[in-house]
Specification:
Biased composition (Low complexity): 12-26
Order of helices and strands: HHHHHHHHHHHEHEHEHEH
Radius of gyration: 34 Å
Keywords: Coiled coil
Region (Disordered): 1-28
Distance between the termini: 40 Å
Strand content: under 5%
Helix content: 55-70%
Organism: Burkholderia theae
Largest sheet: 4 strands, parallel
Number of strands: 4
Number of helices: 15
Strand order of the largest sheet: 2-1-3-4
Family: Belongs to the UPF0751 family.
Length: 448
Amino acid sequence: MHAPPFRLARTAGLSSSGGHPSAASGTRIDACCAPSRAQQVELKRRTRLSELDANLHCSIIGTCLTTHELRRLVPKFADVDRQHATDLEIHHAAVELAIAGTGGAKALHKALDERYAGAIRAFDSAKDAAELLARWKEALKSGDIPPAYWALMTHPRTTMSVRQAAFGDLHMLSHLVGAANRADIRRLVALEEENAALHAKIERQQARLHEMSTERDATRQERDALVARQNAQPLATENVLRDEVRELREALAARDERLALHTSRREAAEQRIAAEQASARAMRARLDDLMAMVKTLRAEASAIEHAMQASIGDPAERTVDTLSILQRKRVVYVGGRPGSNRAIRRIVEASGGDVTMHDGGIEDRKGLLAAALPGAHLVVFPVDCIDHDSMNLLKRICERHGIAYYPLRTASVASFVELIGRLDAQARDVMQPDAPAGDAPRFCLRHG
């Protein structure tokens, strides 16, 4: 999909209360975006699933409901085979039910409300569209997307522009997750399916255990009745009754053994479910780490690409160079690799700066660090190519002389260029207080 399935809202003429273009701005209001009279009167009612734009149903159902839940719910209202239908057929049937607005849409809406009741209550306190969008951004950062997406789409104060922003974020997130973690997602889906199968098996076993317990109670009642009849019958039938009682006791013992066997199997299944759930949580944590790594790598790639474009472009047409902050600055670079260090030296000198290299104690003596730092404007060291003793010594000397030091994620040229670009952006923010704040540092300045 190259564009969202609806027209993007224009925000230049939004009013402060409703989020729609004002009549005084001269902007035409589309019929699909303008609130109806019933919506203006009934502002406190949440939007129903069937009332949303038909192009949003696919993202809502695919994000907020699992395939297992859809297989249990959709066949009650649509002509699909619960066992043999594919996941795509189940998904299409659910979307058609949501668009139709019949009993199936009401059932889907009820299931979503019951599952995400906590998120709906949390979003109810939002007073306007801006606060709703801010809460959506927080949920996007924390990874708790399905509850926030449903609560946002059906909130009574949600505007078309807010829905478009959430839809776009979810659309791009699906691209990133699908491209970088397709194998992890397949594993997670397989674990969810196996988890659902194990839950179904436990339910069947519990039903069987209940049935066996009922049979055991009936057997005991029969035994008690036989004992009562034995006491009332003549002595001639005593041996026959004794044999029957013995057979019943043997049958009861066999049932008790079967009951113990099923109980042990149920406990083993519960332990396996717990292990699979722990594995699923570990996979989700790995997914979050990979997403953070992708964000860092994209920032480094963008910085090195911008630096390369600035270096090969026409000086007369060149925009503001992000490496101009190095002009007339002295940089001390500690650690790293010889190849990348030579490239960093050329970049700094080409930008009009001066750089002093120190390998961190491999060939250069560590005692030269104290002599190399005075007069430096900033100190840079990669955390993957420097030993801990040199890094701790370097931090203490910088704090003593009041010199700013910056750790790099790796000893690559891209990490160095991304740091200089970030420092340049921070310097411009200081010169322009009204400008929006940039990204926070990705490393702790004290511990790396």
